[in-house]
Amino acid sequence: MDPARDGRWSNEPTVALNPVGQPEPPTVRYDPVNAPTVRLPVVPGPQVVSDAPVVEETAPPPSPGDDESTGTVVRNSSTMAILSLISRGTGFIRAAAISAAIGGAVVGDDYTLANNLPNQIYELLLGGVLASVLIPTLVRARKEEPDRGEAYAQRLLTLAVVTLGAATLIVVLAAPLITAIYTLGNDRVTADDRDLITFLAYLLLPEIFFYGLAGIFAAILNVRGHFAAPMWTPILNNVVIIATAGAFMLVRGSGLPTPETITVPQILVLGIGTTLGIVIQALGLWPAMRKTGFRWKWRFDFRKLHLRELGRLGAWMLLYVAVNQIGITVVMSLAKNNQVRGGDGPIIFNNAFLIFMMAHGIVAVSVITAMMPRISSAAADGRFGDVTDQLSQATRLASVILIPAAAIYVVLGQPLAVTLFDWGEYGYDAALATGWVVSAAGLGLVPFALSQMQTSVFYAMRDTRTPALVNIGGVAIRLLLDVAFYFLLPIAAVTASLMVGTALSFVAALLLGYWLLRTRLGRLGLARVADTLLRLTAAAAVGGALAFAASWAIARVMDPGKLLGVVQLLVGSAVLLAAYAALALVLRVPEVRQFATLIKSKLGR
Protein backbone atom coordinates (compact mmCIF):
# COMPACT_ATOMS: atom_id res chain seq x y z
CA MET A 1 0.00 0.00 0.00
CA ASP A 2 1.34 3.42 -0.91
CA PRO A 3 2.42 5.09 2.31
CA ALA A 4 0.76 8.34 1.31
CA ARG A 5 -2.88 8.63 2.31
CA ASP A 6 -5.23 9.63 -0.47
CA GLY A 7 -8.10 10.81 1.65
CA ARG A 8 -9.38 11.70 5.07
CA TRP A 9 -11.62 9.92 7.51
CA SER A 10 -14.98 11.37 8.43
CA ASN A 11 -14.86 14.53 10.52
CA GLU A 12 -18.08 13.71 12.33
CA PRO A 13 -17.73 14.01 16.09
CA THR A 14 -17.02 10.74 17.81
CA VAL A 15 -17.94 9.81 21.35
CA ALA A 16 -16.77 6.21 21.40
CA LEU A 17 -15.16 4.83 24.51
CA ASN A 18 -13.89 1.38 23.71
CA PRO A 19 -11.97 -0.52 26.39
CA VAL A 20 -9.01 -1.19 24.21
CA GLY A 21 -5.41 -0.22 24.29
CA GLN A 22 -4.92 -0.94 27.97
CA PRO A 23 -3.22 -3.89 29.58
CA GLU A 24 -6.06 -5.80 31.14
CA PRO A 25 -6.20 -8.75 33.47
CA PRO A 26 -5.41 -11.93 31.58
CA THR A 27 -8.99 -12.92 31.02
CA VAL A 28 -10.87 -13.78 27.92
CA ARG A 29 -13.52 -11.14 28.18
CA TYR A 30 -16.74 -11.11 26.18
CA ASP A 31 -16.95 -8.10 23.88
CA PRO A 32 -19.60 -8.82 21.29
CA VAL A 33 -18.81 -6.02 18.87
CA ASN A 34 -15.42 -4.46 19.33
CA ALA A 35 -13.49 -7.57 20.13
CA PRO A 36 -13.75 -10.63 17.95
CA THR A 37 -14.07 -13.12 20.70
CA VAL A 38 -15.02 -13.56 24.27
CA ARG A 39 -12.22 -13.09 26.73
CA LEU A 40 -12.46 -15.88 29.24
CA PRO A 41 -10.59 -16.35 32.49
CA VAL A 42 -7.31 -18.12 32.01
CA VAL A 43 -5.86 -18.34 35.49
CA PRO A 44 -7.48 -21.44 36.95
CA GLY A 45 -8.25 -21.30 40.58
CA PRO A 46 -9.74 -23.45 43.28
CA GLN A 47 -13.28 -24.73 43.40
CA VAL A 48 -15.29 -25.88 46.40
CA VAL A 49 -17.67 -28.45 47.89
CA SER A 50 -20.91 -30.19 46.77
CA ASP A 51 -23.26 -33.11 46.81
CA ALA A 52 -23.18 -33.31 43.04
CA PRO A 53 -21.34 -36.10 41.29
CA VAL A 54 -17.59 -35.89 41.60
CA VAL A 55 -15.99 -35.12 38.29
CA GLU A 56 -12.71 -36.72 37.36
CA GLU A 57 -9.96 -34.15 37.61
CA THR A 58 -7.35 -33.69 34.96
CA ALA A 59 -4.02 -35.36 35.54
CA PRO A 60 -1.59 -33.57 37.76
CA PRO A 61 0.75 -31.30 35.92
CA PRO A 62 3.98 -32.99 34.98
CA SER A 63 7.31 -31.48 35.70
CA PRO A 64 7.80 -28.37 33.62
CA GLY A 65 11.08 -29.61 32.34
CA ASP A 66 9.66 -32.74 30.76
CA ASP A 67 9.36 -32.94 27.01
CA GLU A 68 5.96 -34.49 27.62
CA SER A 69 4.88 -31.37 29.49
CA THR A 70 6.01 -29.12 26.66
CA GLY A 71 4.33 -31.32 24.09
CA THR A 72 1.08 -31.31 26.04
CA VAL A 73 1.08 -27.54 26.29
CA VAL A 74 1.85 -27.20 22.59
CA ARG A 75 -1.01 -29.57 21.71
CA ASN A 76 -3.50 -27.93 24.06
CA SER A 77 -2.60 -24.40 23.06
CA SER A 78 -2.62 -25.35 19.37
CA THR A 79 -6.11 -26.80 19.65
CA MET A 80 -7.36 -23.68 21.41
CA ALA A 81 -5.56 -21.48 18.91
CA ILE A 82 -7.33 -23.21 16.01
CA LEU A 83 -10.71 -22.71 17.67
CA SER A 84 -9.83 -19.12 18.50
CA LEU A 85 -8.68 -18.53 14.91
CA ILE A 86 -12.05 -19.68 13.60
CA SER A 87 -13.81 -17.55 16.18
CA ARG A 88 -11.73 -14.49 15.38
CA GLY A 89 -12.20 -15.05 11.67
CA THR A 90 -15.96 -14.91 12.06
CA GLY A 91 -15.40 -11.99 14.42
CA PHE A 92 -13.77 -9.98 11.66
CA ILE A 93 -16.65 -10.81 9.34
CA ARG A 94 -18.93 -9.55 12.09
CA ALA A 95 -16.93 -6.34 12.55
CA ALA A 96 -16.87 -5.72 8.80
CA ALA A 97 -20.62 -6.36 8.57
CA ILE A 98 -21.44 -3.96 11.41
CA SER A 99 -19.08 -1.30 10.01
CA ALA A 100 -20.63 -1.65 6.58
CA ALA A 101 -24.15 -1.45 8.05
CA ILE A 102 -23.83 1.55 10.37
CA GLY A 103 -20.74 3.28 8.94
CA GLY A 104 -18.31 5.46 10.83
CA ALA A 105 -20.37 8.60 11.26
CA VAL A 106 -22.38 9.72 14.27
CA VAL A 107 -24.74 6.72 14.53
CA GLY A 108 -21.77 4.37 14.38
CA ASP A 109 -20.04 6.33 17.14
CA ASP A 110 -23.16 6.36 19.32
CA TYR A 111 -23.60 2.61 18.90
CA THR A 112 -19.94 2.03 19.74
CA LEU A 113 -20.20 4.07 22.92
CA ALA A 114 -23.44 2.40 24.03
CA ASN A 115 -22.06 -1.06 23.34
CA ASN A 116 -18.93 -0.32 25.35
CA LEU A 117 -20.90 0.66 28.45
CA PRO A 118 -21.73 -2.93 29.52
CA ASN A 119 -18.14 -3.93 28.80
CA GLN A 120 -16.61 -1.32 31.04
CA ILE A 121 -19.16 -1.72 33.82
CA TYR A 122 -18.76 -5.51 33.77
CA GLU A 123 -15.00 -5.12 34.09
CA LEU A 124 -15.46 -2.89 37.11
CA LEU A 125 -17.98 -5.26 38.71
CA LEU A 126 -16.48 -8.67 38.05
CA GLY A 127 -14.30 -9.06 34.96
CA GLY A 128 -10.90 -8.42 36.51
CA VAL A 129 -11.81 -10.14 39.77
CA LEU A 130 -12.46 -13.37 37.86
CA ALA A 131 -8.87 -13.59 36.70
CA SER A 132 -7.15 -12.35 39.80
CA VAL A 133 -9.20 -13.80 42.63
CA LEU A 134 -12.00 -16.21 41.83
CA ILE A 135 -10.19 -18.54 39.47
CA PRO A 136 -7.19 -19.18 41.74
CA THR A 137 -9.59 -19.94 44.59
CA LEU A 138 -11.43 -22.38 42.34
CA VAL A 139 -8.19 -24.23 41.69
CA ARG A 140 -7.33 -24.35 45.36
CA ALA A 141 -10.79 -25.64 46.30
CA ARG A 142 -10.59 -28.32 43.63
CA LYS A 143 -7.30 -29.48 45.09
CA GLU A 144 -8.29 -29.30 48.77
CA GLU A 145 -12.04 -29.86 49.19
CA PRO A 146 -13.42 -33.40 49.62
CA ASP A 147 -15.84 -33.01 46.70
CA ARG A 148 -13.14 -31.35 44.59
CA GLY A 149 -14.75 -27.96 44.61
CA GLU A 150 -18.25 -28.79 43.39
CA ALA A 151 -20.14 -27.02 46.20
CA TYR A 152 -17.75 -24.06 46.09
CA ALA A 153 -18.49 -23.60 42.40
CA GLN A 154 -22.21 -23.80 43.12
CA ARG A 155 -21.94 -21.15 45.84
CA LEU A 156 -19.89 -18.95 43.54
CA LEU A 157 -22.41 -19.28 40.72
CA THR A 158 -25.29 -18.57 43.10
CA LEU A 159 -23.58 -15.43 44.38
CA ALA A 160 -22.82 -14.32 40.82
CA VAL A 161 -26.42 -14.75 39.68
CA VAL A 162 -27.76 -12.78 42.65
CA THR A 163 -25.24 -9.94 42.58
CA LEU A 164 -25.06 -9.63 38.81
CA GLY A 165 -28.83 -9.68 38.53
CA ALA A 166 -29.22 -6.88 41.08
CA ALA A 167 -26.34 -4.85 39.65
CA THR A 168 -27.63 -5.20 36.10
CA LEU A 169 -31.11 -4.03 37.10
CA ILE A 170 -29.69 -0.96 38.86
CA VAL A 171 -27.40 -0.12 35.95
CA VAL A 172 -30.20 -0.43 33.37
CA LEU A 173 -32.42 1.90 35.39
CA ALA A 174 -29.51 4.35 35.61
CA ALA A 175 -28.89 4.36 31.83
CA PRO A 176 -29.65 8.09 31.38
CA LEU A 177 -27.28 9.01 34.21
CA ILE A 178 -24.52 6.77 32.81
CA THR A 179 -24.91 8.31 29.37
CA ALA A 180 -24.67 11.79 30.88
CA ILE A 181 -21.46 10.85 32.72
CA TYR A 182 -19.80 9.40 29.63
CA THR A 183 -20.66 12.42 27.49
CA LEU A 184 -19.96 15.00 30.18
CA GLY A 185 -18.04 18.02 28.93
CA ASN A 186 -18.48 17.14 25.26
CA ASP A 187 -20.45 20.03 23.81
CA ARG A 188 -20.38 18.43 20.37
CA VAL A 189 -22.70 15.64 21.53
CA THR A 190 -26.21 16.80 20.69
CA ALA A 191 -29.43 16.03 22.54
CA ASP A 192 -30.33 13.58 19.76
CA ASP A 193 -26.98 11.84 20.27
CA ARG A 194 -27.63 11.45 23.98
CA ASP A 195 -31.15 10.16 23.36
CA LEU A 196 -29.86 7.57 20.91
CA ILE A 197 -27.04 6.45 23.23
CA THR A 198 -29.49 6.17 26.13
CA PHE A 199 -32.02 4.17 24.10
CA LEU A 200 -29.29 1.78 22.97
CA ALA A 201 -27.93 1.59 26.52
CA TYR A 202 -31.31 0.37 27.80
CA LEU A 203 -31.10 -2.47 25.27
CA LEU A 204 -27.40 -3.28 25.67
CA LEU A 205 -26.72 -2.96 29.40
CA PRO A 206 -28.48 -6.29 30.20
CA GLU A 207 -25.40 -7.87 28.58
CA ILE A 208 -23.62 -7.34 31.92
CA PHE A 209 -25.53 -10.25 33.49
CA PHE A 210 -24.63 -12.62 30.67
CA TYR A 211 -21.01 -11.47 30.59
CA GLY A 212 -20.82 -12.54 34.22
CA LEU A 213 -22.49 -15.90 33.64
CA ALA A 214 -20.19 -16.62 30.71
CA GLY A 215 -17.14 -15.69 32.77
CA ILE A 216 -18.10 -17.97 35.67
CA PHE A 217 -19.01 -20.84 33.35
CA ALA A 218 -15.69 -20.50 31.51
CA ALA A 219 -13.75 -20.36 34.78
CA ILE A 220 -15.34 -23.59 36.01
CA LEU A 221 -14.73 -25.29 32.66
CA ASN A 222 -11.09 -24.21 32.51
CA VAL A 223 -10.41 -25.44 36.04
CA ARG A 224 -11.84 -28.83 35.05
CA GLY A 225 -9.57 -28.99 32.02
CA HIS A 226 -12.26 -28.23 29.42
CA PHE A 227 -10.98 -25.42 27.22
CA ALA A 228 -12.78 -25.92 23.90
CA ALA A 229 -16.28 -24.59 24.59
CA PRO A 230 -15.15 -21.13 25.79
CA MET A 231 -13.10 -20.85 22.61
CA TRP A 232 -15.83 -21.77 20.10
CA THR A 233 -19.02 -20.30 21.61
CA PRO A 234 -18.03 -16.77 20.45
CA ILE A 235 -18.78 -18.07 16.96
CA LEU A 236 -22.46 -18.23 17.95
CA ASN A 237 -22.30 -14.59 19.00
CA ASN A 238 -20.57 -13.61 15.78
CA VAL A 239 -23.23 -15.31 13.66
CA VAL A 240 -25.99 -13.48 15.54
CA ILE A 241 -24.25 -10.11 15.10
CA ILE A 242 -23.71 -10.75 11.39
CA ALA A 243 -27.42 -11.51 11.08
CA THR A 244 -28.17 -8.35 13.05
CA ALA A 245 -26.11 -6.29 10.60
CA GLY A 246 -28.01 -7.83 7.70
CA ALA A 247 -31.35 -7.16 9.37
CA PHE A 248 -30.35 -3.55 10.03
CA MET A 249 -29.49 -3.08 6.36
CA LEU A 250 -32.94 -4.36 5.44
CA VAL A 251 -34.82 -2.03 7.79
CA ARG A 252 -32.42 0.85 7.04
CA GLY A 253 -33.07 0.98 3.33
CA SER A 254 -30.90 3.28 1.26
CA GLY A 255 -28.73 5.85 2.96
CA LEU A 256 -27.39 5.95 6.49
CA PRO A 257 -29.63 7.23 9.27
CA THR A 258 -28.57 10.04 11.57
CA PRO A 259 -29.41 10.42 15.27
CA GLU A 260 -32.25 12.69 14.14
CA THR A 261 -33.70 10.30 11.52
CA ILE A 262 -33.03 6.81 12.91
CA THR A 263 -36.28 4.97 13.65
CA VAL A 264 -37.33 2.93 16.66
CA PRO A 265 -37.38 -0.36 14.67
CA GLN A 266 -33.82 0.31 13.50
CA ILE A 267 -32.65 0.94 17.07
CA LEU A 268 -34.42 -2.19 18.30
CA VAL A 269 -32.75 -4.33 15.64
CA LEU A 270 -29.30 -3.07 16.64
CA GLY A 271 -29.84 -3.25 20.39
CA ILE A 272 -31.77 -6.51 20.72
CA GLY A 273 -29.66 -8.29 18.11
CA THR A 274 -26.40 -7.32 19.82
CA THR A 275 -27.61 -8.39 23.26
CA LEU A 276 -29.05 -11.62 21.88
CA GLY A 277 -25.58 -12.53 20.63
CA ILE A 278 -24.01 -12.52 24.10
CA VAL A 279 -27.06 -14.30 25.58
CA ILE A 280 -26.65 -17.17 23.13
CA GLN A 281 -22.90 -17.20 23.66
CA ALA A 282 -23.26 -17.50 27.43
CA LEU A 283 -25.99 -20.14 27.32
CA GLY A 284 -23.97 -22.07 24.75
CA LEU A 285 -21.52 -22.96 27.54
CA TRP A 286 -24.14 -24.75 29.63
CA PRO A 287 -24.08 -28.09 27.71
CA ALA A 288 -20.31 -28.24 28.27
CA MET A 289 -20.89 -27.56 31.98
CA ARG A 290 -23.33 -30.47 32.15
CA LYS A 291 -20.87 -32.68 30.32
CA THR A 292 -18.24 -32.14 33.02
CA GLY A 293 -20.72 -33.40 35.61
CA PHE A 294 -21.52 -30.00 37.07
CA ARG A 295 -25.07 -29.68 38.36
CA TRP A 296 -26.84 -26.46 39.28
CA LYS A 297 -27.82 -26.11 42.92
CA TRP A 298 -28.69 -22.94 44.80
CA ARG A 299 -26.30 -22.48 47.73
CA PHE A 300 -26.61 -19.36 49.88
CA ASP A 301 -24.02 -20.23 52.54
CA PHE A 302 -21.68 -17.59 51.16
CA ARG A 303 -19.51 -17.53 54.28
CA LYS A 304 -17.83 -20.67 53.02
CA LEU A 305 -16.58 -18.67 50.03
CA HIS A 306 -14.17 -16.83 52.37
CA LEU A 307 -15.46 -13.50 51.12
CA ARG A 308 -13.20 -11.45 53.39
CA GLU A 309 -10.11 -12.86 51.70
CA LEU A 310 -11.70 -12.46 48.29
CA GLY A 311 -12.49 -8.84 49.13
CA ARG A 312 -8.91 -8.12 50.18
CA LEU A 313 -7.54 -9.53 46.95
CA GLY A 314 -10.31 -8.04 44.84
CA ALA A 315 -9.75 -4.50 46.11
CA TRP A 316 -6.39 -4.30 44.35
CA MET A 317 -7.99 -5.75 41.24
CA LEU A 318 -10.64 -3.07 41.28
CA LEU A 319 -7.86 -0.47 41.45
CA TYR A 320 -6.22 -2.16 38.46
CA VAL A 321 -9.43 -1.98 36.45
CA ALA A 322 -10.28 1.57 37.56
CA VAL A 323 -6.87 2.82 36.43
CA ASN A 324 -7.44 1.10 33.09
CA GLN A 325 -10.77 2.85 32.65
CA ILE A 326 -9.16 6.23 33.34
CA GLY A 327 -6.51 5.52 30.73
CA ILE A 328 -9.08 4.35 28.20
CA THR A 329 -11.25 7.41 28.71
CA VAL A 330 -8.36 9.86 28.31
CA VAL A 331 -6.98 8.19 25.18
CA MET A 332 -10.40 7.95 23.54
CA SER A 333 -11.00 11.60 24.39
CA LEU A 334 -7.73 12.54 22.70
CA ALA A 335 -8.70 10.51 19.65
CA LYS A 336 -12.15 12.12 19.53
CA ASN A 337 -10.72 15.62 19.82
CA ASN A 338 -8.25 14.78 17.07
CA GLN A 339 -11.15 13.83 14.83
CA VAL A 340 -12.85 17.13 15.61
CA ARG A 341 -9.63 18.87 14.48
CA GLY A 342 -9.83 17.04 11.15
CA GLY A 343 -7.78 13.95 11.94
CA ASP A 344 -8.62 10.32 12.54
CA GLY A 345 -10.70 9.36 15.56
CA PRO A 346 -11.68 6.59 17.96
CA ILE A 347 -13.20 4.21 15.42
CA ILE A 348 -9.91 4.11 13.53
CA PHE A 349 -8.07 3.39 16.77
CA ASN A 350 -10.62 0.78 17.87
CA ASN A 351 -10.57 -1.18 14.63
CA ALA A 352 -6.77 -1.21 14.63
CA PHE A 353 -6.79 -2.54 18.17
CA LEU A 354 -9.25 -5.21 17.10
CA ILE A 355 -6.62 -6.44 14.64
CA PHE A 356 -3.95 -6.13 17.33
CA MET A 357 -5.94 -8.32 19.69
CA MET A 358 -6.43 -11.01 17.05
CA ALA A 359 -2.89 -12.35 17.39
CA HIS A 360 -2.89 -11.92 21.15
CA GLY A 361 -6.21 -13.71 21.52
CA ILE A 362 -5.34 -16.57 19.20
CA VAL A 363 -1.81 -17.21 20.42
CA ALA A 364 -1.05 -15.70 23.82
CA VAL A 365 -4.43 -16.40 25.40
CA SER A 366 -4.33 -19.99 24.13
CA VAL A 367 -0.85 -20.60 25.53
CA ILE A 368 -1.70 -18.91 28.84
CA THR A 369 -4.93 -20.88 29.16
CA ALA A 370 -3.11 -24.16 28.55
CA MET A 371 -0.27 -23.43 30.97
CA MET A 372 -1.92 -21.58 33.83
CA PRO A 373 -3.37 -24.71 35.48
CA ARG A 374 0.22 -25.89 35.86
CA ILE A 375 1.46 -22.53 37.10
CA SER A 376 -1.39 -22.19 39.59
CA SER A 377 -0.84 -25.73 40.86
CA ALA A 378 2.91 -25.16 41.22
CA ALA A 379 2.35 -21.87 43.04
CA ALA A 380 -0.18 -23.46 45.40
CA ASP A 381 2.35 -26.20 46.24
CA GLY A 382 5.21 -23.73 46.72
CA ARG A 383 7.13 -25.09 43.71
CA PHE A 384 8.30 -21.67 42.55
CA GLY A 385 11.10 -23.11 40.45
CA ASP A 386 8.42 -24.83 38.38
CA VAL A 387 6.54 -21.53 38.15
CA THR A 388 9.53 -19.79 36.57
CA ASP A 389 10.12 -22.73 34.23
CA GLN A 390 6.51 -22.59 33.07
CA LEU A 391 6.68 -18.82 32.53
CA SER A 392 9.85 -19.23 30.48
CA GLN A 393 8.25 -21.97 28.42
CA ALA A 394 5.05 -19.97 27.84
CA THR A 395 7.08 -16.94 26.76
CA ARG A 396 9.12 -18.91 24.26
CA LEU A 397 6.18 -20.86 22.82
CA ALA A 398 3.96 -17.81 22.35
CA SER A 399 6.78 -15.78 20.80
CA VAL A 400 7.16 -18.29 17.97
CA ILE A 401 3.88 -16.99 16.53
CA LEU A 402 3.66 -13.51 18.04
CA ILE A 403 6.95 -12.23 16.60
CA PRO A 404 6.11 -12.94 12.93
CA ALA A 405 2.57 -11.65 13.57
CA ALA A 406 4.08 -8.41 14.86
CA ALA A 407 6.23 -8.21 11.73
CA ILE A 408 3.15 -8.61 9.54
CA TYR A 409 1.40 -5.83 11.42
CA VAL A 410 4.36 -3.46 11.09
CA VAL A 411 5.14 -4.14 7.43
CA LEU A 412 1.70 -5.00 6.03
CA GLY A 413 -0.58 -2.99 8.31
CA GLN A 414 -2.25 -1.03 5.51
CA PRO A 415 -2.93 -3.98 3.18
CA LEU A 416 -4.29 -5.90 6.17
CA ALA A 417 -6.64 -3.10 7.21
CA VAL A 418 -7.83 -2.48 3.66
CA THR A 419 -8.56 -6.18 3.17
CA LEU A 420 -10.56 -6.39 6.39
CA PHE A 421 -12.34 -3.04 6.57
CA ASP A 422 -12.71 -1.54 3.09
CA TRP A 423 -16.39 -2.46 2.87
CA GLY A 424 -19.63 -0.53 2.59
CA GLU A 425 -19.78 2.73 4.48
CA TYR A 426 -16.32 2.39 6.09
CA GLY A 427 -14.39 3.15 2.93
CA TYR A 428 -10.87 2.92 1.52
CA ASP A 429 -9.46 6.07 3.09
CA ALA A 430 -10.56 5.04 6.58
CA ALA A 431 -9.06 1.60 6.01
CA LEU A 432 -5.73 3.18 5.01
CA ALA A 433 -5.79 5.28 8.18
CA THR A 434 -6.53 2.16 10.20
CA GLY A 435 -3.51 0.49 8.62
CA TRP A 436 -1.12 3.13 9.95
CA VAL A 437 -2.39 2.46 13.46
CA VAL A 438 -2.05 -1.30 12.93
CA SER A 439 1.60 -0.81 12.00
CA ALA A 440 2.15 1.12 15.23
CA ALA A 441 0.29 -1.57 17.17
CA GLY A 442 2.71 -4.22 15.92
CA LEU A 443 5.43 -2.64 18.05
CA GLY A 444 3.51 -3.49 21.21
CA LEU A 445 2.19 -6.96 20.42
CA VAL A 446 4.95 -9.04 22.02
CA PRO A 447 5.47 -6.78 25.07
CA PHE A 448 1.72 -6.78 25.72
CA ALA A 449 1.40 -10.56 25.56
CA LEU A 450 4.45 -11.18 27.73
CA SER A 451 3.33 -8.65 30.34
CA GLN A 452 -0.03 -10.44 30.51
CA MET A 453 1.79 -13.70 31.22
CA GLN A 454 3.65 -12.00 34.05
CA THR A 455 0.38 -10.73 35.47
CA SER A 456 -1.00 -14.27 35.35
CA VAL A 457 1.94 -15.48 37.43
CA PHE A 458 1.34 -12.82 40.07
CA TYR A 459 -2.32 -13.80 40.22
CA ALA A 460 -1.40 -17.48 40.52
CA MET A 461 0.62 -16.49 43.61
CA ARG A 462 -2.49 -14.69 44.91
CA ASP A 463 -0.79 -11.32 44.54
CA THR A 464 -3.10 -8.68 43.09
CA ARG A 465 -1.23 -5.73 44.60
CA THR A 466 1.87 -5.90 42.41
CA PRO A 467 0.01 -6.00 39.04
CA ALA A 468 -2.12 -3.05 40.17
CA LEU A 469 0.95 -0.97 41.02
CA VAL A 470 2.72 -1.97 37.80
CA ASN A 471 -0.40 -1.01 35.88
CA ILE A 472 -0.52 2.43 37.51
CA GLY A 473 3.02 3.05 36.29
CA GLY A 474 2.26 1.76 32.80
CA VAL A 475 -0.89 3.85 32.42
CA ALA A 476 0.91 6.95 33.70
CA ILE A 477 3.66 6.50 31.09
CA ARG A 478 1.10 5.93 28.39
CA LEU A 479 -0.91 9.03 29.20
CA LEU A 480 2.18 11.24 29.45
CA LEU A 481 3.36 10.06 26.04
CA ASP A 482 -0.06 10.26 24.41
CA VAL A 483 -0.76 13.78 25.68
CA ALA A 484 2.67 14.88 24.45
CA PHE A 485 2.08 13.29 21.04
CA TYR A 486 -1.34 14.94 20.79
CA PHE A 487 0.05 18.44 21.28
CA LEU A 488 3.41 18.06 19.52
CA LEU A 489 2.73 15.98 16.41
CA PRO A 490 0.83 16.84 13.22
CA ILE A 491 -2.90 16.07 13.31
CA ALA A 492 -2.53 13.33 10.69
CA ALA A 493 -0.05 11.44 12.89
CA VAL A 494 -1.85 11.66 16.23
CA THR A 495 -4.03 8.52 16.16
CA ALA A 496 -1.13 6.27 15.16
CA SER A 497 1.05 7.97 17.77
CA LEU A 498 -1.53 7.12 20.46
CA MET A 499 -0.88 3.48 19.62
CA VAL A 500 2.88 4.08 19.79
CA GLY A 501 2.41 5.47 23.30
CA THR A 502 0.40 2.37 24.15
CA ALA A 503 3.15 0.09 22.83
CA LEU A 504 5.87 1.89 24.78
CA SER A 505 3.82 1.62 27.97
CA PHE A 506 3.63 -2.15 27.42
CA VAL A 507 7.42 -2.28 27.12
CA ALA A 508 7.79 -0.37 30.39
CA ALA A 509 5.31 -2.66 32.16
CA LEU A 510 7.12 -5.73 30.82
CA LEU A 511 10.53 -4.61 32.07
CA LEU A 512 9.18 -3.62 35.47
CA GLY A 513 7.29 -6.89 35.75
CA TYR A 514 10.38 -8.97 35.01
CA TRP A 515 12.36 -7.06 37.60
CA LEU A 516 9.70 -7.61 40.26
CA LEU A 517 9.30 -11.30 39.41
CA ARG A 518 13.06 -11.81 39.56
CA THR A 519 13.10 -10.13 42.96
CA ARG A 520 10.33 -12.46 44.12
CA LEU A 521 11.28 -15.74 42.44
CA GLY A 522 14.98 -15.49 41.65
CA ARG A 523 16.37 -16.54 38.29
CA LEU A 524 13.71 -16.57 35.57
CA GLY A 525 15.65 -18.30 32.82
CA LEU A 526 16.00 -14.99 31.01
CA ALA A 527 19.15 -16.04 29.17
CA ARG A 528 17.30 -18.82 27.39
CA VAL A 529 14.29 -16.57 26.74
CA ALA A 530 16.49 -13.78 25.35
CA ASP A 531 18.36 -16.22 23.10
CA THR A 532 15.09 -17.53 21.65
CA LEU A 533 13.61 -14.06 21.18
CA LEU A 534 16.73 -12.74 19.45
CA ARG A 535 16.80 -15.62 16.98
CA LEU A 536 13.09 -15.30 16.24
CA THR A 537 13.36 -11.52 15.84
CA ALA A 538 16.28 -11.88 13.42
CA ALA A 539 14.30 -14.34 11.32
CA ALA A 540 11.23 -12.08 11.35
CA ALA A 541 13.29 -9.00 10.44
CA VAL A 542 14.66 -10.69 7.33
CA GLY A 543 11.19 -11.93 6.41
CA GLY A 544 9.74 -8.47 7.00
CA ALA A 545 12.32 -6.82 4.75
CA LEU A 546 11.53 -9.26 1.94
CA ALA A 547 7.79 -8.75 2.44
CA PHE A 548 8.20 -4.97 2.29
CA ALA A 549 10.14 -5.29 -0.97
CA ALA A 550 7.46 -7.54 -2.46
CA SER A 551 4.67 -5.19 -1.34
CA TRP A 552 6.49 -2.18 -2.78
CA ALA A 553 7.00 -3.94 -6.11
CA ILE A 554 3.33 -4.91 -6.34
CA ALA A 555 2.27 -1.30 -5.63
CA ARG A 556 4.33 -0.17 -8.64
CA VAL A 557 2.28 -2.26 -11.09
CA MET A 558 -1.25 -2.10 -9.61
CA ASP A 559 -3.66 0.76 -9.04
CA PRO A 560 -4.58 1.75 -5.47
CA GLY A 561 -7.65 -0.01 -4.17
CA LYS A 562 -8.91 -3.06 -2.36
CA LEU A 563 -7.49 -5.53 -4.89
CA LEU A 564 -4.02 -4.07 -4.38
CA GLY A 565 -4.36 -4.48 -0.62
CA VAL A 566 -5.47 -8.10 -0.91
CA VAL A 567 -2.63 -9.02 -3.27
CA GLN A 568 -0.04 -7.23 -1.13
CA LEU A 569 -1.31 -8.98 1.99
CA LEU A 570 -1.35 -12.46 0.48
CA VAL A 571 2.00 -12.24 -1.28
CA GLY A 572 3.73 -10.28 1.48
CA SER A 573 2.52 -12.62 4.22
CA ALA A 574 3.55 -15.69 2.27
CA VAL A 575 7.04 -14.27 1.67
CA LEU A 576 7.45 -13.18 5.29
CA LEU A 577 6.26 -16.43 6.84
CA ALA A 578 8.25 -18.63 4.47
CA ALA A 579 11.46 -16.71 5.12
CA TYR A 580 10.78 -16.63 8.86
CA ALA A 581 10.13 -20.36 9.13
CA ALA A 582 13.18 -21.27 7.05
CA LEU A 583 15.54 -19.01 8.99
CA ALA A 584 14.13 -20.05 12.37
CA LEU A 585 14.77 -23.69 11.51
CA VAL A 586 18.27 -22.85 10.28
CA LEU A 587 18.91 -20.99 13.54
CA ARG A 588 17.76 -24.11 15.42
CA VAL A 589 15.04 -22.57 17.56
CA PRO A 590 13.71 -25.58 19.53
CA GLU A 591 10.18 -24.22 19.92
CA VAL A 592 9.83 -23.78 16.15
CA ARG A 593 10.81 -27.40 15.68
CA GLN A 594 8.18 -28.43 18.24
CA PHE A 595 5.49 -26.58 16.32
CA ALA A 596 6.75 -28.00 13.03
CA THR A 597 6.62 -31.53 14.44
CA LEU A 598 3.08 -30.95 15.70
CA ILE A 599 1.93 -29.64 12.31
CA LYS A 600 3.49 -32.62 10.53
CA SER A 601 1.74 -35.01 12.88
CA LYS A 602 -1.60 -33.26 12.28
CA LEU A 603 -1.16 -33.36 8.51
CA GLY A 604 -0.04 -36.96 8.63
CA ARG A 605 -3.27 -38.18 10.22
TrEMBL record:
Listed InterPro entries: Lipid_II_flippase_MurJ/MviN, MurJ
Main location as per UniProt: membrane
Pfam families assigned to the protein according to its UniProt record, in alphabetical order: MurJ (PF03023)
Keywords (A to Z) from UniProt: Cell membrane, Cell shape, Membrane, Peptidoglycan synthesis, Transmembrane, Transmembrane helix
Gene Ontology MF annotations: lipid-linked peptidoglycan transporter activity
Signal sequence interval, chain numbering: none
Disordered as annotated region, ranges: 1-33
Topology term for the membrane: Multi-pass membrane protein
GO biological process, one term: regulation of cell shape
Superkingdom assignment: Bacteria
Keyword Transmembrane attached: yes
Transmembrane portions of the chain: 85-108, 120-139, 159-184, 196-223, 235-255, 267-289, 310-335, 347-373, 394-412, 432-450, 470-489, 495-517, 533-554, 566-587
Subcellular locations according to the entry: Cell membrane
A GO CC term attached to the entry: plasma membrane
Protein name as annotated: Lipid II flippase MurJ
